[in-house]
Design a protein that fits this description.
Blueprint (H helix, E strand, L loop, with lengths): L7 H9 L4 H11 L3 H19 L10 H10 L16 H6 L9 E2 L4 E5 L10 E7 L8 E3 L3 E7 L1 E4 L2 E3 L4 E4 L8 E3 L4 E7 L3 E3 L13
Helix pairs in contact: 1-3
């Protein structure tokens, strides 16, 4: 069960089609396994359609945005029966193979990566798959920009809690953490980065000039 979700503004931007392709993919992957957020986006889509139909007649009050956000946040959570597996896995379609069979590149002792930025031509962000071996620790780091991550397999923990499969997390330069893979399988995540990470460990910080 997912416990960490995109915020209302991100869902609104997704509904409006304003997100970059990599960010939209992260949210889509989450939506296809999270009936709660999927219901909220359905509400947004319906509201957007109504507003478009009545656009010439509508005057927007100063409080309209706050009222809309409150309506989204109060959308009732759907029943477990509403959960459905996607008919077509967008990540499988993008990669052409299972994530465990990819040509991973060992970056550090417990961490392997695969840069898939070339799958999104014309985008300025870096899009990276990361694999942390079961029980392994990623180096302590902060961020030079924003990082959006979705957990594709397994789980990891840091000072903010435990992030399970399909959980969604957004970090920025104010966040410093050291993820640890928990459970019995490797933790695989998909991240969209606006800028390189910044390693903060005593020795690993020497690698910062080589990160992109």
């Amino acid at each position: 069960m997912t416990r960490h979700h995109p915020d209302s503004l991100s869902l609104m931007e997704y509904s409006a089609g304003n997100l970059s392709d990599p960010h939209a993919l992260c949210i889509r992957l989450h939506l296809e396994r999270c009936p709660q957020c999927r219901s909220r986006v359905d509400t947004l889509d319906s509201l957007g359609a109504v507003m478009m139909d009545h656009q010439p007649k509508v005057s927007v009050a100063d409080t309209s945005f706050d009222q809309l956000m409150a309506r989204i946040d109060n959308t009732p959570e759907p029943s477990p029966e509403a959960v459905a597996r996607p008919k077509v896995d967008p990540l499988m379609k993008l990669l052409g193979q299972d994530i465990n069979d990819l040509p991973w590149k060992r970056q550090l002792a417990d961490v392997s990566v695969l840069d898939i930025s070339d799958k999104f031509p014309g985008q300025n962000e870096r899009v990276v798959l990361q694999k942390l071996v079961s029980g392994g620790k990623a180096p302590a780091h902060t961020h030079r920009g924003d990082e959006t991550t979705i957990v594709l397999q397994g789980a990891f923990s840091d000072q903010n809690g435990v992030f399970n499969q399909w959980d969604f997390v957004v970090l920025n330069e104010e966040d410093e953490h050291r993820p640890v893979a928990v459970g019995c399988e490797d933790c695989i995540t998909l991240s969209v980065l606006s800028a390189p990470l910044k390693l903060t460990g005593t020795f690993t910080r020497l690698l910062n000039p080589f990160l992109r």
